[in-house]
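anyone else get weird line breaks when pasting these?? whatever heres mine. first is seq + tokens for prot A
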Amino acid sequence: MIKVAMRIAYYGGDFFGFQRQKNQVTICGVLEEVFRSIGIFDLCVGSGRTDKGVHASAQVISVDIPEFHRDFDRLKQLLNTKLYPRIKIKQIWQVESGFHARFSVKRRGYCYVLSQKYSPFWVLFSHFYPLKNPLLVQESLNAFRGVYDFGAFMKNGGSGCESSVREIFHAKLVKRGDFYLISFWGNGFLRSQIRLMVGFLLEIDKGNLGIEDLKRQLLGEKIFSVPAPSNGLFLSRVDY
């Protein structure tokens, strides 16, 4: 057997999240069904468990494959033919036997897309919200940088982790044409953490909350906990 990593992209709107679930169509479930059809019977491990409706441009999975699939270019083409059109294998490479797609990660990057103009063609991949005060949002993003217990920015039900302490290395707002991109880089994220952080930022932009409220929630006081819609969120990068 050969242990490989695969970098994949997917449209999350048609799936009930990444992780396999009984009686639900998930990214992992579809991948494993296709894997079995070509003689790969190992369970895949993902770098992160994206929620229902969340997309990915650079999710990473690890899986053991038989020797007869050593031609990675041919394997990628075969898989993409079967996974089309909602999931795409972008890259396959061999890794050490101890590699783990989730626990070997050094940092993860997420991007939240805000469209500034309404379009029915954009709504599947962005959240329509005309930003009012970009400078205030960037100032608010600066408050997220550092090590915090993000328990107040976690959806009920937890994330399967013992600790809710995480470090955010980077939090930035950039303008790209008719879109604002909010990007976060960290050593890990809790269940719905990004969407809850973005939801808080949009309340600050509306004038309903302030940066001091954000700092209080970072210290554990739950003030606002309505997540931004899932369609604007992408898992955009995973580094090992």
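and prot B, same format (seq, then tokens)
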Amino acid sequence: MDLGLTGKVAIVTGAGHGLGAAIAARFAQEGAAVALVDIDETAAEAQASTLRLSGARVLALGADVTSETAVTAMVGRVVEHLGGVHVLVNNAGFTRDMRITKMKVDDWDAVVDVILKGAFLCTRAVMPHMTEQRWGRVINISSRAHLGNPGQANYSAAKAGVIGFTRAMSLEAGRSFITVNAVAPGIIDTEAVRRLAHYEKVKENAEKTTPIPRLGQPEDVADVVAFLASERAGYVSGDVLHVSGGRY
């Protein structure tokens, strides 16, 4: 199925590792030019170098998505070097898990700012370009954690906020034929998950409790993101698509 992404320009934040890297690779496979954005520019460049070997047109950029100045400059460089911006994937985020009685203000702010403020700043920066061309796709990476997880008050709140932001933006942007959707992954077998000391227990538990008895793969999420970015999803907006193997 042709997704109609050839020649489009996609920005993927948090693209140096894990889900972001898989999403960037999926766009490149579909013929899109891709800007891989990460606070770790070295990691973004490593992923970009791999994609260039297959002939993809890619750009690696280091940027702090919580900085208005950095985000504005990043989008400007993407437009200058790749010729525009059609798709934004707000994927940057991380966890800093602990019970709330032990959670410091910095632990709250760091997680919420990257996930939620980052989505706000990046979306605001690309919106004029998408509005002018009357075509755009914004895909925000939420999480099954938006339903609430113990020890993840900061992360759960931020990911729930992403869904509210998604629905508000879909109402604002729709008349310009810009769709805004969220993807909520469950437990995905990324390198960050594999580094957990209790990884084997996490994997075993997922296989026992998930209706589809396995961990999700980054490509499972990337495929859904690519669909939402495509011409095929032009009438889907304000929605949340869970990629969780049926586990809610």
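btw re prot B: The chain has one domain: 9-241. The two ends are 29 Å apart (CA to CA).
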